[in-house]
Amino acid sequence: MTERLLKRHPEAESHPSGERVVVFHKSTKNSIVLNPTGSWLWEQLEQPRSRQELVDRLVERYPDVERQRLADDMEVYLRELTDNELVIS
Amino acid sequence: MNAFDSLLELLTGSTLKPLEPGDWAAVLQFAERNKLVLPLAQSVANNEAVPKDVRERLSSEATRKSLVEIHRAGHLLELVADFQEAGIEVKSFKGPTLAQLAHGRVSARECCDIDLLVKPAHFDRALKRLFAQGFVYEMEDQPRCYTRFHYGVPLNNGPRRLTVDLHYELFSAGVHFPSDRIWDCPFHVEIQGVAVPTFRPEHIFVYLALHGSKHCWRELRWLHDLYVLLPQVDLGEVEAFARLQSCERSVALALGLLDELWSTGYSLSSVKADPSLLSQSLRLLQGARISWPEYHSYQYRCQSTWQQRFRLFLHTWFSPQIHDLRFVDLPPSLWFVYYAIRPIRVLGRRLIPLKGVSDD
């Protein structure tokens, strides 16, 4: 079975602020501030990607960190983004 | 390299010569004073030549400011929708609309307020709509006749932490800049998915050039707006509109400043920037102070025709300003007396300067 791709919600608007990104939902008016890692993840989602692909990219970015830890951290970010309807699958 | 030059380099993403920690403090202070923290944070985000703690500080400040601007834009949308629902023709300019139009997003530019232009016939109705939403005059002791002599009025909404500058004209009577042609050209910019009526980019460019010279280019942010807007405008159309509005000298000055600071290489074909105005403006941009006579001389030199200079002269000496109106509260039938009070007060203020009282 193919894994569902994650993508930015079409109503989500990016506001880069230095090394961080503020993501604003045009309909719900929710906004969240992403730290540099969250901002990097958001940048990756400019194109739809699978969880697997995102973890692979994170491992490439932080080769010294254990894969499972990176996957867990990523889930925390993704949950915040999906809870705020900023990322959909 | 001083703070001004360093900031210019950083804003354009040029390679920066190493700076001392004290120099960074000066650059950040200059950026804050000129409301350029947002574009600065963005342009240094991946610049390794900038110390990490400086980037972190900028990033954190930019995030806070971005959220403020995103919410300000939301308020703008509500106000425009409310006016439109009431049949009030409105155009938003400067503020979040300029941020979106010139910089591509509302969080890319720090604003102070929301500027709305309504047709003169709709002004009183617009004012009532704002009062109904909890706005009050920004000046607590605003004279009753203020809007009779001024082209707009600032209003505050405390709970929303919002200031709206409601205009029925774009400049005071001393500056010839009719808004009819702006009303004749419908143009919209999309903010958070909503089409907001505003000026054509060429019109806003000319307006901002005139606005900058009116304030003697004391904020680098205004010039940076033009720098960002420049690639989006048709310079032929800018020149034609400047000619139509008789403000070629101010537009030539703005283009001259852009060329001096960022080597843009553009100028008007008909008028070149006045070299003395150019060098004075460059000093003012860097924080130099201007005296009362210098200010007026600057304003006269920015005018394109002798008729405009004469108009400005009449305005300076006879058009009542806030302090003249506060001087004595006259009934509407005697408001014409303010035209006589103005020159007496101006002369009196020049001859006997009062400590602690600001200039008009």
Overall shape of chain B: globular
The CA-CA distance between the termini of chain B, in Å, is 36 Å
Shape of chain A: globular
Please outline the major beta sheet of chain A.
Answer: 3 strands, antiparallel
Low-confidence stretches of chain A: none
Spatial order of the strands forming the largest sheet of chain A: 2-3-4
Using the CA coordinates, give the radius of gyration of chain B: 21 Å
Strand content of chain B: 5-15%
H/E series of chain B, N to C? Answer: HHHHEHEHEHEEHEEHHHHHHHHH
N-to-C CA distance of chain A = 15 Å
Radius of gyration of chain A: 13 Å
Number of helices of chain B: 17
Total beta-strand segments of chain B: 7
- Fraction of residues of chain B in helices? 40-55%
Quantity of strands of chain A, as a count: 5
Question: How would you characterize the overall build of this protein?
Answer:
The complex is a heterodimer of chains A (89) and B (360). Chain A is an alpha+beta fold and 89 residues long. Helix content of chain A is 42%, strand content 22%. Chain A has 3 helices and 5 strands, in the order ββββαααβ. In chain A, the strands form 2 sheets. Chain A has a 3-stranded antiparallel β-sheet with strand order 2-3-4. In chain A, α2 packs across α3. The longest helix of chain A is centred in the last third of the chain and has 17 residues, at 67-83. Chain A is globular, with a radius of gyration of 13 Å. Chain B is an alpha+beta fold and 360 residues long. Chain B is built from 17 helices and 7 strands. In chain B, the strands form 2 sheets. Chain B has a 5-stranded mixed β-sheet. A two-stranded antiparallel ribbon of chain B has the order 6-7. In chain B, β6 (188-191) and β7 form a beta hairpin. Chain B starts with a helix and ends in a 9-residue tail after the last helix. Residues 355-360 of chain B have low confidence and may be disordered. The chains are: A alpha+beta (89), B alpha+beta (360).
